[in-house]
Amino acid sequence: MSLSFAPILARYEPVIGLEVHAQLLTRSKLFCGCANRFGAPPNTLVCPVCLGLPGALPVLNRHAVTLALRASLALGCRVNATSVFERKNYFYPDLPKGYQISQYAEPLATGGSLAIAGAEGGERHVRLARLHMEEDAGKLLHEGFSWSGEKSGVDLNRAGVPLVEIVSEPDLRSSEEAHAYLGALRAVLLYTGVSDGNMEEGSLRCDANVSVRPRGEAALGTRTEIKNLNSFRHVARAIEHEVARQVALVESGNQVVQETRLWNADRGETAPMRSKEDAHDYRYFPEPDLAPLAVGPEWLDEVCRSLPELPAQRRRRLVGEYALPEYDAAVLTQERELADYFEAAARKSDSPKAVSNWIMTELLRKLKRDARPLAEAPVTPAALASLVTLVESGRISGRTAKDVFERMWTSGEPAATIVEREGLAQLDDEGALQAAVAEVVAASPEQVASYRGGKAAALGWFVGQVMRRTGGRANPQRVNALLRKTLDGAR
Ligand SMILES: [Zn+2]
Q1: Cα 66 to averaged position of ligand 1 atoms, centre (Å)
Q2: CA separation (Å) from 481 to 11, 460, 469, 484, 490?
Q3: 8 Å CB contact between 309 and 336
């Protein structure tokens, strides 16, 4: 959070709720057999049902419901025995039917909560209001075509793709908490295989309800809804901008107007989009072509049994089992594959914390640099564990290890092979080290005098000289000890 923001937060408390839409990882759409796939040429994944042609009838995709149930149970929601699909009527060019099939009065699930890291350590539970299913709309294409200057196109491949909308209670109190909530929610969706959580491709989208109130005040201020938040960074920035805007309005004696605002990432500000609709504007009514959705106990049991260990459980387990700091455990459990990688390496090493450090710095940095998924990392968990063992046992220095890791990354060779071939093992031989120390001391009478005159910091200079003379391979702790003995002993 920027520094100029701090004085505002001393006087006002932001109140934030998030509405997250997640696309479900099904093969086909929610009510027809068209493929649910990103990146196909526009309007190639469509049929009479998702185009809303007269007479076409929707058929509910059972697997989509199973995935929505997985999300519901993983978030601790109460699944309703019966839920009802309704038509949400509105006009927009990306919605050929003129209505979206959604759930309103009787959603799939209600309640539940999500744990996020609290500001003062520990965990905070953010309450959820509901989780419901709905179909996605199409997408307007405003750029990228020769005719884009004159008109916009519409791509209906996305129309009818299954979504869950997860609505939080207004329990979040800062942009950081909103960011943490989104990260925790994404992790749950990834772990359970409910969604791929890819924000760039739009499979995870977020709207934020934001209001402010003077600190100590119980009543909620008037809220605005910010749409179009398509990255974690934008969510945080948009919330901060909106909080500052509302506080400025209140302090100048004006009022916040309840409305929907659009986040403009290029300008870094929100702008009014439309006055906020009320539910009655949508003229909801039950979808006459779909029976109410009944979820019996057998179905729920089956879904419950298929749930994997969830991110929060795994985070706690990593802290307990491997004595990792909370921070490390939180980073490593963001994605299931990363946590798997860590555990596979940690089990083969005596130093899980060192393994964690290597993953959080070198491994993640190189994956990002090469834009590779973890599955294609050239260094396997076992190979990383061997490298960590070489460092921990003092065979190679931490510095050398970074070079070795780089070579492992490019060649795929094991650490031991590289260290052996290139003669990178630390110089531990007492005689060789003592000789190097003696040479340096003999060649530097001025520095010796300075050190013996009380300038203790000069020792570092001697260590540097010995390291240089040994091509960086000397064990620094040993060199330090030998230098002290030579310099102090002869006094
Ligand atoms: Zn279709």
Answers
A1: 20
A2: 56, 12, 17, 5, 14
A3: no
- What are the phi and psi torsion angles at 151 (to 5°)? -150, 170
Mean pLDDT across the stretch 460-479?
84
Q: Check if the beta carbon of residue 166 is closer than 8 Å to that of residue 195.
A: no
* Residue 18: strand pairing partners: 208
- Cα 65 from Cα 67, distance rounded (Å): 5
First to last CA, the chain: 55
Chain mean pLDDT for the chain? 91
Q: How far is the CA of 225 from the centre of ligand 1 (A)?
A: 31
Nearest 5°: phi and psi at 360? -70, -25
Q: What angle (nearest 5°) sits at the alpha carbon of residue 160, between those of residues 157 and 166? A: 120
Length of the chain, in residues: 491
Q: How far apart are CA 172 and CA 168, in angstroms?
A: 9
Residue pair 210/239 in contact (Cβ under 8 Å)? The answer is: yes
- What's the CA-to-centroid distance between 35 and ligand 1, angstroms? 8
d(CA 11, CA 7): 7
Quote the ligand 1 centre to 233 CA distance (angstroms).
Answer: 34
Cα–ligand 1 centroid distance for 171 (angstroms)? 38
| Centroid of ligand 1 to alpha carbon of 368 (angstroms) | 36
Sign of the C-alpha dihedral computed for residues 419, 420, 424 and 425 taken in this order? positive
Give pLDDT tens digits for 203-227: 999 999 999 999 999 999 999 999 8
Count of beta carbons in the 10 Å neighbourhood of residue 449: 11
Residues measured by CB to lie within 5 Å of ligand 1, the ion: 32, 34, 47, 49-50
Across 412-440, average pLDDT = 85
Distance CA 29, CA 52 (A): 14
The span from the CA of 152 to the CA of 437, in Å, is: 75
466: confidence class by pLDDT, cuts 50, 70, 90: confident
Cα(200) to ligand 1 centroid in Å equals 24
Distance 20 CA to ligand 1 centre (A): 24
Q: pLDDT band at 468, cuts 50/70/90?
A: confident
Express each pLDDT in 377-388 by its tens digit: 999 999 999 999
Task: Say which range, 61-70, 138-147, 230-239, 426-435, has the weakest mean pLDDT.
Answer: 426-435
pTM: 0.81
Chain centroid to CA 310: how far? 15
Helix (H, G, I), strand (E, B) or coil at 469: helix
Alpha helices in 195-294 (DSSP H): 232-251
Distance 160 CA to ligand 1 centre (A): 7
Q: Give which of 481, 482, 484 is closest to 434, Cα–Cα.
A: 482
* Ligand 1 mean position, distance from CA 139 (Å): 15
